Amino acid sequence: MKRLMTVLAGLAWLLPLTSGAENFTAELDWADRVELSVPVSGVVQKVNAESGQAVAAGSLLLSLDTAVFKANLAAAEAQFKSLAIDLEEAQREFNRAEELYASTVLSDRDLQLAEIAYEKVNAQYQAARANVTEARFQLDHATIKAPFDAWVIRRNVMPGEVLMQSYVPKTLLTVAKRDAMRAVARVPVETLARLQPGQSVQLKVNDASLQGVISSIDLQPEQARYAVAIEFAVGDGVRYLPGMKAEVDLP
Fold this sequence. Notes:
This protein is an alpha+beta fold. The protein has helices at residues 2-14, 67-102, 108-140, 189-192, and strands spanning 22-30, 33-36, 42-47, 54-55, 60-64, 143-145, 150-155, 162-163, 173-177, 180-187, 200-205, 208-217, 226-233, 245-250. Strand 11 (200-205) and strand 12 (208-217) form a beta hairpin. Helix 2 packs antiparallel against helix 3. The two termini are 19 Å apart.
């Protein structure tokens, strides 16, 4: 952000400035669009989302069958508890061996064998801890919840579908923020020199006057025009869609 503002400030020295706002036609787009998936393989049990549906932040959108995940976690935790007991015993045996060695009762070789036995059990214990972490991760990530109040844009999955997510995870649901949109205007370089992120902007959509803020400025032109994105709030009960036109007054 700081670098972008520095570049724009530099442009302002090179280009003549004009007074008054300029009007541009802009096109609406989603302010935040997120593709949702799960990082684990499994069978889809429920899908609680349909394209075009409004969902609240935190609501459950999709869940896998968790029976296998729960069984794997239970087995991993049981193995971990068992090895925790073995590790305590191995630690006691090693401590005893060190005491005997200090009393010149135990040979170097016997002490070394006791240490090897302890390290072997400790390695198994650490591996079991990692297995518990992995099993818990799989169980925790067998669901998808809405990251914010959103519109469900697209649903790409059905109950009963088998997901193989090991290599390239499949996008299951696509959502977009419900309470904000953005209008993208394309402006010449002369206008760009007067703009910076954070500036307040007036815009009109379907005869509704709105207040927006410049959220980003693309410094890579297309056909000598630069994309300027203006984010604005969308009230309850109001619905705008990508592709709709807006009128934007830029400083």
